[in-house]
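Two records follow; treat each independently.
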Amino acid sequence: MAIADIAAYTHLSQVDIEALADELDAIRADIEDSLGERDAAYIRRTIRFQRVLDVAARLIIGCSRSRTGWVVGTAALAFAKSVENMEIGHNVGHGQWDWMNDPEIHSTTWEWDMVGVSSQWRYSHNYRHHVFSNVVDVDDDLGFGVIRMTRDQPWKPEHLAQPLRNLLLASIFEWGIGLHGIHSERDRLAPDREKVVEARKAFAAKIARQSLKDYALVPALSGSRWRRTLAANAAANVLRNFWAYVVIFCGHFPDGAEKFTADVLENETRGEWYLRQMLGAANFKAGPLLAFSSGNLCYQIEHHLFPDLPSNRLAQIAVRVREVCDKYDLPYTTSSLAHQYFLVLRTIHKLALPGRFLVATSDDAPETASERKFVADARPVAVPGRPRVGLRTSLRERARARRR
């Protein structure tokens, strides 16, 4: 089923794993030492751009009288909301800009423009997800509790409906994130009922404020054209939700984004944690515009390795991470956005079915793998002066053997 022994799966010795950790630590140190005004100017410029675009989009929606004007304004508003959600809200919430000591652009003060409460999301996402990434029954983001994304999650008849659940989750993704956050808060605060009640009140208050702004106050400012503004706000929110969902799912659930059993957490070293992040995430290829639009989460591998390093540095970090992968013969999972999303949809539809309808084994399937698939193989031995034969080479050889 899922990976229980990271060293065995990656074909690395403990010495290799410690050396890999040292190299990744060096990358972090180099980036932290070089942070400065240019990085600060980037996030401030991004916030100004997003706010100007938001206002411009609303003016276009409110002032234009054509359908084309409404479409252009709505698309611009959806883009502004996406930038605020991912390149600003998500990344500020990770503490990527806390080093600036700016009270406005800080993880403890930023409240993003969606129904989820930022403080609740920080616990469910920064802690539950990033620390325990892709550990079955520990990381709540693994299918978000409504979609079966690995065979380690027992099949239930309700999973037959998960293709429809997937569409629903995509369209209301901000609500899914908000509910996800409050559920995590409930688990964390369970012994203290008063704090649980306070957390629920905070969530309800955020829903009320957000709904009032999007669906009452802003449309009311449009006067007799309130219906036009209301429809634009609703459409922009849905478009933002779909885009955020696509980016997140393509970074976590295509083939090659592995899952792990809770066994890996026992005495997990820094190097093993790094390996779990590298193996459990996936990138998609993007130019500057697509990278910016996705909050630079096209570099999901690098983001999981260094979640609190500024997003504008991830492209630079990616070059060095690929070099580390080459050195240790590790896979670097990346492809086009369309291809990654196709693989995600294939997994969602495949795992809607009971195991008896699936062909590949539970240890060696495109969406589920473990070190047990290598049991029959001779363990590669590193020989000084010869190229390393590790996980990436082994996976390629197995893929070639299957095609014969």
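The next record belongs to a different protein.
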Amino acid sequence: MKRNSYYWRKLHSLLGVIPLGGFILVHVSINFQAFERGPEGFATYVHFINSLPLKPLLEIVGIYLPILFHAIYGLYMAFQSNLNAGQYKYERNWAFTLQRITGVLTFIFVFWHFFNTRLQIYLGNITHEELGSTMHHIAVNPVYFILYVIGVLSAVFHFSNGLWAFLISWGVTVSPRSQKISSTICLGVFVLVSLLFILSLVAFTGDEFL
């Protein structure tokens, strides 16, 4: 049983970085076009992504199934974990605790965001061209804006801190020095990606997205 648990955890860790980490980076690069190039730039990138060959298959295999497994097994681990794990140093213990908490918050946020955007496209309520307008109506609502910021920060922290743990569990960073360096890099990833997402969200408040 423990042996099976080891492999499930390895798979969970791997999927959190590949492909889900890649999905976060692609997602932020598309959204940032709203800040950098406005509605036209955002619409161009959305059109490009949705014109990729075999896109439905790529979404199912590369996004939806990995997200479902990572989320469900992650929630299982979160509720099985001892959040006051005293064997870690103070800052690592807090990171461990936040990893579990942000995992739950991210799961809720991703489902909510999917419902507001992608699911509405599947149901025929909006088109890809109306995604910018949809995000505008979300971003100009102060409560939704704050909830989106919390959701984004949770998701990006969960990814960047998970990346740090991934490098250790897969034997990439073994020595204390390499782990300290990767911790600094992952913190930089958290700050940079969070900033890009928040700037994108601010851009969507502009009336030009109506």
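Discussion point: The chain is about 80% helix and 0% strand. How would you locate this feature using only the token line?
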